[in-house]
Amino acid sequence: MQQPEGFITPGKEHLVCRLKKSLYGLKQAPRQWYKRFDSFMIGQSYCRSQYDDYIYFQNFQNGSFIYLLLYVDDMLIASRDKSLIKKLKTQLSNEFDMKELGAAKKILGMEICRDRQAGKLFLSQQNYIERVFDRFNMNNCKPVSTPLATHFKLSSELCPDTKEEMERM
To answer: Strand, helix or coil at 127?
Structure first.
């Protein structure tokens, strides 16, 4: 490594620069970003999920919850109480540069459909399935109600009994 042009210190040309924080694009940058984000969320009294390190939640005394799902540098915030969402967004924007993208329509390739009158939320992977069909030239195949032919009869008796049968299957 060499000192950058214009920043060479006379008599110390053999020395190199020491980074005090990770630069975007370096191998350790995502880890440093996550560590900073994690310490911020823990500092705001959020708990990390024991099942997934990228899910944070907080349980309030009135019984309401707020969830934050992190995927790289995208976030999905969910709560029944809009004031909690607004408060969390304010806290995050004070700490990080953020861009508000509005109500979520997609997350991780899943389409989010809302029925606000019924108070229901649906996730759909229809576009993903259509892309898989296109990729394998199956977009014109005939749909069937079951993936097996009708003459196949499945039962628990067909399950493997021994280790050898399990390995063979």
So the answer is: helix
Give the pLDDT confidence of 98-130 residue by residue, as tens digits.
Answer: 888 888 888 888 899 989 899 888 999 998 888
C-alpha span between 138 and 57 (Å, rounded): 41
* Structural domain that includes position 131: 103-145
Q: Where are the beta strands (DSSP E) in the chain?
A: 47-48, 55-59, 65-71, 74-79, 106-107, 110-115, 120-124
Distance of CA 15 to the CA centre of its chain: 41
Judge whether 159 lies within some domain: no
CB atoms within 10 A of CB 125: 13
Domain boundary (85, 100, 115) is at 100
Tell whether pTM > 0.85: no
Look at the chain and report how many structural domains it folds into: 2
